[in-house]
Amino acid sequence: MLDVLTQKIHDEARQGEAYAPFINDPTQYKKRFYIESYGCQMNFSDSEIVASILNGTGYGATRNYEEADLVFLNTCSIREKAEQTVRKRLTEFRKIKQARPGLLVGVLGCMAERLKSKFLEEEQLVDIVVGPDAYRSLPALIEEAEGGQKAVNVLLSREETYADISPVRLNSNGVSAFVSIMRGCNNMCTFCVVPFTRGRERSRDAASIIKECKDLFDRGYREVTLLGQNVDSYYFTPETGNGEPGNLSEAVTFARLLEEVAKISPLLRVRFSTSHPKDITDDVLHVMARHNNICKYIHLPVQSGSSRILQMMNRTYTREWYMAKIDRIREIIPGCGISSDIISGFCTETEEDHQDTLSLMEYSRYDLSYMFFYSERPGTLAQRRYKDDVPESVKKRRLQEVVDLQNRLSRESNERDLGKTFEVLIEGDSKKSGEDWMGRTSQNKVIVFSKQGNTCQKGNYVHVQVTDCTKATLLGEVV
Ligand code: 5AD
Ligand code: SF4
């Protein structure tokens, strides 16, 4: 689903680490900004919009904060650990600021709303606080901050999609790019802070999405990942939307959008993330099956395998319903890669509920999972309604069992691929050696193979036979 670098960024960010992007920056700018992003792909994609707005206001990017006039942290609130990491980082920047009083420090993204007064007033850690829907006001806010005032805008919007802003690709490998198709979330899963930090769901103008994907293809990109908190509820009606609908004059569903993007070129791979099990339709599955260039991979977070816990989480499906969805995917798209998100130790979770999660994982045969222990978030429905009553030691032990099981399932999934041949899009050199290429299969598995004896280039498609594997990577040979 992601290019290797972004996957790395994503994985590191999920572990609460930051990633400071390298930006190939022209030297025409008088001032410099440095941006660190935390959290989900959406946040990394937002940083590319911020970079575009900052370029427009005379700030060029740097990967070295020591030469920056402006430092931004694009923050994540999804779990407490992510917030702690950002706080620690801000304290470090406060020290740097003491030595360089002219330096401006800003907090962007999901932590902005909840922590605005704390950051600005109590701790004096930052000069600028901007929420995810207010990036267009950055030029004015920077000017205020340059004038010595504290600058804040954390207003959430019902309309903002940044449809007309052309993102500046940070850290791009020139092959894969993210394209944001919607913002916010209306689902109200009880554990989740996103509906509060990112606001109501809204879909971006379909014509602007297709244009952005076409432009990327024309510039040599060969893979786009359509991004949203809940892509299957994408719905754009041209009459009510902003911008020119082009030839898309009727309401556009996610299935339709996916198909339109796939039709740009058979050489453009299309991925998407994230799907909510309740919303992914047969239409989407059939569109995926119809187009070779729509990758056969679905990230379908289950969160828990217990129907009782799922109900408390307000996921609106049961264990059996989810299993039927897995069956349906395997029926319509044989060989589809499937991954999941799992939370261990949600409020009231018993040993039996936990066993239900393990058995559902076995049933689903996930190729990959992102696994977390429950972290109570202020303001969420779960925090207001339920007691966070599973002891931390129990949460961690259950999480370890989930991780151990996923490791086995990932290894078994890779072993099932031994001897098979896959079409692979080459993304660049392998991490370990410049003698090897790294690419991905349609199912989103990383595959490494030798450059020797072939004339492949980055961005090419090539057929590779799997000869060996580890838990995380396939190894192969060009055939
Ligand atoms: N505690 C632990 N994990 C959470 N997630 C979301 N909120 C929480 C929380 N409060 C996980 C879910 C979601 C993923 C992005 O993060 O699994 O799918
Ligand atoms: Fe959070 Fe649920 Fe929305 Fe995902 S679908 S962002 S978990 S509320």
Protein model, in words:
The chain has helices at 4-14, 41-56, 80-99, 111-122, 138-146, 194-197, 206-218, 254-262, 282-290, 307-312, 319-332, 351-364, 381-385, 392-416; strands at residues 31-37, 59-61, 70-75, 104-109, 128-130, 151-153, 176-180, 182-183, 202-203, 223-227, 235-236, 252-253, 269-273, 297-299, 337-344, 368-373, 421-429, 436-441, 446-450, 461-469, 474-478. It has 479 residues and is of the alpha/beta class. It starts with a helix and ends with a strand. Strand 4 (104-109), helix 4 and strand 5 form a beta-alpha-beta unit. The strands form 6 sheets. A 6-stranded parallel sheet has the order 2-1-3-4-5-6, with helices on both faces. A 5-stranded mixed β-barrel has the order 17-18-19-21-20. A 3-stranded parallel sheet has the order 7-10-13, sandwiched between helices. It folds into 3 domains: 2-153, Rossmann fold (3-Layer(aba) Sandwich); 176-415, pyruvate-formate lyase- activating enzyme; 421-478, OB fold (Dihydrolipoamide Acetyltransferase, E2P), CATH 2.40.50.140. Helices cover 35% and strands 21% of the residues. Residues 78-79, 191-192, 301, 303, 341, 343, 372, 374-375, 377 line the site of 5'-deoxyadenosine.
Task: Tag the structure with descriptive keywords.
479 residues, alpha/beta, Rossmann fold, pyruvate-formate lyase- activating enzyme, OB fold (Dihydrolipoamide Acetyltransferase, E2P), five-stranded mixed β-barrel, 35% helix, globular, disordered N terminus, binds 5'-deoxyadenosine, binds iron/sulfur cluster
